[in-house]
Amino acid sequence: MVFTSLADGVMSSVESAASGVSAALFDRPLRLGVTGLARSGKTVFITSLVANLLDRARMLQLNAAREGRIEAAFLQPQPDDTVPRFDYENHLAALTGPSPHWPDSTRAVSELRLSLKVRPAGLLSGWQGPRTLHLDIVDYPGEWLLDLALLDKSYAEWSQDVLARIANRPQAQAFLAANTQAVPVGTHDEPQAQALAAAFTEYLNAARAAGFYDCTPGRFLLPGDLAGSPALTFAPLPPEPGAPRGSLWREMERRFEAYKAKVVKPFFRDHFARIDRQVVLVDALSAIHSGPQAMEDLRHAMADILSAFKPGRNHFLTRLLGGKRVEKILFAATKADHLHHAQHEAMTAIIEALTREAQDRARFAGAETEALAMASLRTTTEEMRPHNGSELPCVRGTLLESGKQAAFYPGALPEDPAQLLTPARQGAESWLEGDYQAMAFAPAPLTLKHGSGPPHIRLDRAAEFLIGDAL
Ligand SMILES: Nc1nc2c(ncn2[C@@H]2O[C@H](COP(=O)(O)OP(=O)(O)O)[C@@H](O)[C@H]2O)c(=O)[nH]1
Ligand SMILES: [Mg+2]
Fold first, then answer.
1. Helix (H, G, I), strand (E, B) or coil at 298
2. How many Å lie between the centroid of ligand 2 and the Cα of residue 107?
3. Pick the residue with more confidence: 291 or 55?
4. Which ligand 1 atom minimizes the distance to the CA of 400?
5. Could you read off the pLDDT of 232-290 as tens digits, one per residue?
6. Phi, psi for 441 (deg, rounded to 5)
7. For residue 23, what pLDDT is reported?
């Protein structure tokens, strides 16, 4: 009796000290959103995170794992019956099988529930039995967040914006030619609408491949089961205020509105609004390799993506979220195994600078933020190689294209990220200090020791920031 009330007393004081947060966390599942632009590394991140939470020998920076408080981890059926399950087993088999390869790219939202049975830390550990944290991991394309900006625009405004932005892009010339041929006030004709939408989609894909990130509507690139539907069959047309009913312009306008109502809003309502913690993955090294314009474009995309986390300016989102907000946001530069650890600090500074605007906004909105450089799956080993009388910090791995072993040095990353971001902001054509190299490595064949997940770099730090306080 005495013991119970003592325990209760300690419990409630500890709970109130933590302002009820930790107690609330255990009572409901924690939703972790994983996003980033295409090929930023979402699939590999989730696969390795789950594998390393199931087998935790490489997760020493995750306090609960190091302290041995995670008694069990297991996959469970997810709560949302209509969302595709993240194909964990197949992705892991691809990465860790006898002939390891990268998993196929995913094209939509998917979800996985991992449950962790955890013994509480500190004072409570003696009295309380283990509790179960359900971690719902949601994978969704960052491109879909960029669509949020469409909600504030009319079809005419959106068209004008897009046409101005793409006027000088070589990738857009075929679409723009088709566009000038079209007669917006003429009667709507489905084959013509389809041809315009197809040309616009082709432009978006080419622009994306060329390193542009402002490629919305996001679902044009990743249509999933909406491919070919009217809500995805529109394109920007020059403003035509007097366009009559039944005209091409009015039909395109109707479809643009349908895209907002039937595609964008449901995504934010069904997925985005329920997220508690968020990781935003960024392939910064690729952008650096592509040059200053890609870098500047990436900075804009990051700021736009993150504007979703400061909903004040968007009425729809503000209403949707009520008072709810994402509690923590991690900005992670992925694929850090392309860099010797001597360069990781410089990479972290770059990702911090690159997402500064976004981070400031998120902080303002009450979320805790952090930036780090990590690799979900380490494919390389480090080595120093002699070069012009000194030594270059390199990494060595198997080249994806040729299957040959090679050592790689991407170039000297500046200690001060402004040396990259300033020329990018000023519209420089190329980097002053010469080029940065990119190289794609294949996953290395692995023999995983019992209890160990795949090798990574700072995945445990990422996990500690994202979920450590809930364990
Ligand atoms: N070296 C290395 N490459 C990675 C890593 N993560 C992702 N990649 C590369 O990036 C590609 C895209 O990753 P993926 O997870 O499919 O990206 P997603 O489109 O965001 O889901 C992969 O096919 C790999 O080539 C990593 O940790 N290390
Ligand atoms: Mg993916």
1. helix
2. 7
3. 55
4. 25
5. 999 999 999 889 999 999 999 999 999 999 999 999 998 898 999 999 999 999 999 98
6. -105, 150
7. 43
User: What is the position in ligand 1's atom list of the atom closest to the CA of 379?
Assistant: 1
DSSP 225: G
Residue 19 has pLDDT above 80, yes or no: no
Task: Give me 24's structure tokens.
Answer: 């609330």
Give the residue, by CA position, lying nearest to ligand 1 atom 23. 102
Q: pLDDT (tens digit, 9 = 90+) per residue, 64-104?
A: 999 999 999 999 998 888 889 999 999 999 999 999 999 98
Main-chain phi, psi angles of 46, to 5 degrees:
-65, -45
Name the pLDDT band for 24 (thresholds 50, 70, 90). very low
Q: For residue 119, give every residue at least 6 positions away whose Cβ sits within 8 Å of its Cβ, in sequence order, or none.
A: 69, 71, 125, 128, 129, 130
Instruction: Supply the residue whose CA is at minimum distance from atom 2 of ligand 1.
Output: 335
> Counting beta carbons within 10 angstroms of the beta carbon of residue 338, is it exposed (0 to 12), middle (13 to 18) or buried (19 or more)?
buried
Task: Provide the percentage of residues in the chain whose pLDDT is more than 70.
Answer: 92
Cβ proximity of 279 and 34 under 8 Å: yes
- Judge whether 56 and 453 are in contact, CB under 8 Å: yes
The crossing angle, in degrees rounded to 10, of helices 42-54 and 459-467 is: 80
- pLDDT at residue 439 greater than cutoff 90: no
CB-based contacts of 219: which residues, under 8 Å, 6+ apart? 144, 147, 226, 232, 259, 263
The span from the CA of 165 to the CA of 142, in Å, is 20
Residues with CB under 6 A from ligand 1: 36, 38-44, 102-103, 105-106, 334-335, 337-338, 375-377, 379, 440-441
Indicate the burial class of 26 (C-beta count within 10 angstroms; 0-12, 13-18, 19 or more). middle
**Cα(132) to centroid of ligand 1, in Å?**
31
Q: What is the pLDDT of residues 152-204, one digit of tens each?
A: 899 999 999 999 999 999 999 999 999 999 888 999 999 999 999 999 999 99
Query: What amino acid is encoded at 355 in this protein?
Result: T
Compute the distance from residue 39 Cα to the ligand 1 centre, in Å: 6
Question: Which residues surround the ion ligand 2 when the cut-off is CB under 5 Å?
Answer: 42-43, 106
**The pair of three-digit structure tokens given for residue 54, joined into one six-digit string:** 């199931």
